[in-house]
């Protein structure tokens, strides 16, 4: 089972890839549904982090799959 630190590292790697290689996706990241509760002391657990990672990965995967061939 992955630790919180492992998932955070994967999120950071993916965000870095998006920022460096696909900055056109940055506006869509703000459209990801809120995964962290709006509480004074939100509980952040592995499931919330994993859901966030999967949302980011889905945005990138769909972008790569649907972009025109001449952009590759």
Question: How would you portray this structure in words?
Answer:
- With 72 residues, this protein is mainly alpha-helical.
- The protein has one domain (4-71).
- 60% of the residues lie in helices and 0% in strands.
- It has three helices and no strands.
- The protein has helices spanning 4-21, 26-29, 46-66.
- Helix 1 runs parallel beside helix 3.
- The radius of gyration is 14 Å and the shape is globular.
Count all strands and give the number: 0
Report the average pLDDT across residues.
85
Q: Provide the β-strand percentage band.
A: under 5%
Main sheet overview: none
Principal-axes shape call = globular
- The end-to-end span amounts to 35 Å
User: Total helix count?
Assistant: 3
Are there runs of 5+ residues with pLDDT below 50, and where? none
Order of SSEs = HHH
Percent helix among the residues?
55-70%
> How many independent structural domains?
1
Q: Any idea what the radius of gyration is?
A: 14 Å
Structural class by sheet pairing and helices = mainly alpha
In short, what is this structure?
This protein is mainly alpha-helical. It has helices at residues 4-21, 26-29, 46-66. It has one domain.
List keywords for this structure.
mainly alpha, 3 helices, globular, single chain, 72 residues
Topology, please?
Layout lengths: L3 H18 L4 H4 L16 H21 L6
């Amino acid at each position: 089972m992955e630790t919180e630190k492992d998932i955070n590292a994967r999120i950071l790697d993916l965000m870095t890839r998006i920022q460096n290689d696909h900055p056109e996706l940055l506006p869509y990241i703000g459209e990801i549904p809120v995964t962290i509760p709006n509480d004074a002391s939100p509980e952040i657990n592995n499931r919330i982090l994993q859901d966030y990672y999967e949302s980011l990965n889905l945005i990138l995967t769909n972008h790569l799959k649907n972009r025109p061939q001449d952009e590759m």
